[in-house]
Each structure stands twice: as structure tokens, then as C-alpha cells.
Amino acid sequence: MKAGLSGLFLAVAALQPGQAQVPGVTADTIKIGSFGALTGPGYLYGKLPMNGIEVVFDQVNAAGGINGRKLELVREDDRCDPAAAIGAVKKLIHEDKVFAIIGGGCSNATVAARETLAEARIPVIIMASVHDGITTPVAPTIFSTALTSSLESAAMLQFALDQGAKRIAVISMRDAWGRSRYTPLIEAFQKKGIKPVLDEEMAPDANDATAQVLRLKGANADAVLVVLYPKPAAIFMRDAQKLGFKPLAVGQSGIADPAAFEDQVGSPGATASFRTISMVRYTPEDPAVDKWRKAIEAKFPGDRLSVFNLFGIGSAQVMVEGLKRAGPDLTREKLVAALNGLKDFETDVYPGGITCVETDHRCNKNPAWIAKEPGKPVRVLGVTKVE
Cystine design at 71: which of 57, 193, 254, 354 (Cβ 3.0–4.6 Å)? Predict the structure, then answer.
């Protein structure tokens, strides 16, 4: 009889809320998955944000966890490859049985995985991918703390106008990545009732921008909105200086490190008028993020704090807040409801508060602007709020 009662007790215990029936949740742990590139050049958008997530989880766990549960991070490598991303997400959901996911580095890979994530109805916070197709139309369980490409495009134009530019031109790539930014940028012009004075195209593998620079210079553009990868953007800036063309050049988060970009351009002074978007309000050298610099260096010896770590730190803090608000009787539905209730939630890194509502899961609408003057450190210039 005692054995029977004992077995019944164990069976009932296994069904208690927040335990075995909720994937990834036990009495002691909450398993959170992450996917992104851990290898190859895309590791900047995968491995480094994941390192940021992990130091936040370490801090939370050292303080006792969330309602007594420690956070466990499970990483999967998608190599920035769409097929690999689908496989990584399926493994996290069905084999690793994670409770929720913070992930998404390279946009094309994350877009490919969106359907799988949405169908599983697993809570997801996108940490770095910017493609609008990830969050538009709204998927009930997919949130983003990354800026999206349409928000960045609107911010680029607004920034140029705020700086007093009157003759604004565009130079862009027209591949899938470029069009995801170019199309909403042209729509932003239309909403403002203005047109670019010139609309130039440049190939991702271009090695010369002389023709484009000469046409832009001839159009007397006082600002150029640069929708290019770092390599062609560096060639454009180099050739612009060579030909004496010095407009305000406005970039986006694809060029998130002005110091590295200055080195890539390789021509002293060529980036003096270059300004670019940042998802975070601090540079890695800022004393305000000393705590996180020390945590990264201690956890990952040989690494230095980067803006990509900060992407992970911010998204992890949003996840932690959602888990806290969801309460001890944890379910995926309660976490989704908690995330939908975030309003102006302040993190250690994002330029403005994080706000998520059921009709709009683009939760970060406050791009910061950064610049690096020759011989000086990177500095934050201000924030543009996009409505």
C-alpha cells in the first residue's frame, strides 16, 4: 500500500505546474536555447551575442536564479545558413526541449527558421537579425529587441534631415539584404514627400566606386545614405575622399564598428564624416559597461567586450524580466503575456526603453548614432526615436 501511495505521489509531483509538463522547466532549472553562427565569419552575430547572454545568466544564477530556478543556455550553430538554422531550431525545440529561445544572428537564416518557430509557439527573442520578415506580420510568440531594417531606414533619413541636409542621395546594394533596407528607405522618402537627389547602386563585390562618386558629387549631394556591406562601403568612402567628395555619410547597423570600418577604409580621414546606427547606447570602451567588460573577460579569457556581446546582454535582460513577471508557475503562455506587457523597460545597453505590444513585436525603436573622428575614440552622438 505504501509503495502504491509513493508511486501515486511521484506521478502527481511530475505533473505539478512549472515542472515536467512544461518543456525545459524543472523545479531547479529553466532551459533557454539559442541559435546563430558559432563558426565562420558570421560568429560576430551568433557566438558573441550568445557570450553576452551567458554572462547575464551567470549573474542571475549567482543571485539565486529566477524564483529559485537557475538559467541554462543551450547553443546551436546555424553557420548563417538557412537550412542549418531550421535544423538548429528543430533540435532546440524537439531534442533539447528548451522552454524559450533567444537567438537569430544572420537575417537570412533567421527568416528561414521563422515558420518553424511560429508553428512551435515557443517564446522567442531575436537578438541580432534585422530583417522585417521576422517580425512582420506579427507572429504571436516571436519578439525582437534588434532594430529592424525598416526602422533603421526611417532613422537614417530622419538623422540626415535632423543634421540639416537638404540634398540627400542614396547608394545601395540591391541583393536580398540590400532590398530589405532599400525598399523601406524609399518608402520613408515618399512619406516625407521628398525624393533622393540621386539613387545609386553598387555591387557587393565592387572594387571601385569612382563612377558613383562622380555622379553623386555632380548632383551636389550634401548627405548620402549608405546601404552597403562594410567592404563596398569602405571602397565608396575611400574613393569619395580621393575625389574630394565629403558629404555626411549615414550608415546602418551592418557597419556597427566605426573603428574597424576606419581600418577597413585604410585612408586617414576618409571616415571623418561617417555616422552609423548602433542598437546599443554605449561603445565597448565606455566606463558604463565596465561590469560587463569584466564579466566577458573573466568568462571568456582572451575576448574583449564588443557591441555584439552587448546585443546578447540586452536581449538576455529582456528575457530575464519576462521570466520574472511570468511568475513561479511558469508556462510559455505566461512568458508571452509578460513580454507583451513590457513598456519602456530599461536595460543596461539599449538606447531607449523596450516596449512590446500584441500588435507590434518590434520592441526596440531607439537607434543610437555613433561616430569616430580621426585619432579619437568612438563616441555616441544621440538617439533617434522611430514611431
Answer: 57
Give the separation between CA 192 and CA 175, rounded to whole angstroms: 25
The CATH 3.40.50.2300 portion of the chain extends over 2-147+286-356, 150-278+369-383
Which CATH class name applies to 2-147+286-356?
alpha beta
Report the 3 state secondary structure along the chain: CHHHHHHHHHHHHHCCCCCCCCCCECCCEEEEEEEECCCCHHHHHCHHHHHHHHHHHHHHHHCCCECCEEEEEEEEECCCCHHHHHHHHHHHHHHCCCCEEEECCCHHHHHHHHHHHHHHCCCEEECCCCCHHHCCCCCCCEEECCCCHHHHHHHHHHHHHHCCCCCEEEEECCCHHHHHHHHHHHHHHHHHCCCCCCEEECCCCCCCCHHHHHHHHHCCCCEEEEECCHHHHHHHHHHHHHCCCCCEEECCCCCCCHHHHHHHHCCCCCCCCEEEEECCCCCCCCHHHHHHHHHHHHHCCCCCCCHHHHHHHHHHHHHHHHHHHHCCCCCHHHHHHHHHCCCCECCCCCCCCECCECCECECCCCCEEEEECCCCCEEEEEECCCC
Residue 11 pLDDT greater than 70, yes or no: no
Give residue 325's pLDDT.
Answer: 98
Q: Which fold has domain 150-278+369-383?
A: Rossmann fold (3.40.50)
Q: What is the pLDDT of residues 245-281, one digit of tens each?
A: 999 999 998 887 888 899 999 999 999 999 999 999 9
Q: Any idea which of 12-21, 23-32, 55-64, 252-261 has the lowest mean pLDDT?
A: 12-21
Q: What is the pLDDT of residues 52-103, one digit of tens each?
A: 999 999 999 999 999 999 999 999 999 999 999 999 999 999 999 999 999 9
